[in-house]
Specification:
The protein is α+β, with helices and mostly antiparallel strands. 40% of the residues lie in helices and 19% in strands. Pfam families: AsnC_trans_reg, HTH_AsnC-type.
């Protein structure tokens, strides 16, 4: 059986309902998931194992509030990395706990980073740390209208 066929089969109506419920609450017991999608708890466990094996479900995590952890300021930083510094920049990003996301992008910029910091002074230190790799452009996030939107197969 091909991996593509298995993915399509796993993403039927029941599979999509299971994914929606899990994204609502990843700690939901298999028995409750089963009630929601009309499967037994063992069938839910088996379906989830197959979704994990197929790479559909990559993991389960806790979503934390940066503000509750003292990181009251978030920002996007766009940067065009200077030629020859790509590997060093990627290494630098991995060593910076403030970096929540680092997306390699097309267009004028090379990367778009999302960072969480305590305050403006902390943000300045983050910018200074990456400044040697290129010219960063920073936008402070005032509010988020959509966060952690659940994904569903199209």
């Amino acid at each position: 059986m091909s991996l593509t066929f298995d993915r399509e089969r796993l993403l039927d109506e029941t599979g999509c309902a299971l994914l929606a419920a899990l994204q609502e609450n990843a700690r939901m017991p298999f028995s409750e998931l089963g009630r929601r999608v009309n499967l037994s708890a063992p069938a839910v466990a088996e379906r989830l194992r197959r979704m994990e094996d197929a790479g559909i479900v990559r993991g389960y995590r806790v979503l934390l509030s940066p503000a509750a952890l003292g990181l009251r300021l978030q920002a996007y930083i766009r940067i065009t990395v200077r030629y020859g510094l790509y590997d060093a920049f990627a290494t630098q990003l991995h060593d910076m706990p403030e970096v929540l996301n680092a997306d390699r992008v097309t267009g004028e910029d090379c990367y778009v980073l999302k960072v969480a910091v305590r305050d403006v002074e902390h943000l300045e230190r983050v910018i200074n740390a990456i400044n040697r790799y290129g010219e960063p452009v920073t936008s402070i996030i005032l509010s988020s209208k959509i966060e952690d939107r659940p994904l569903l197969p199209s």
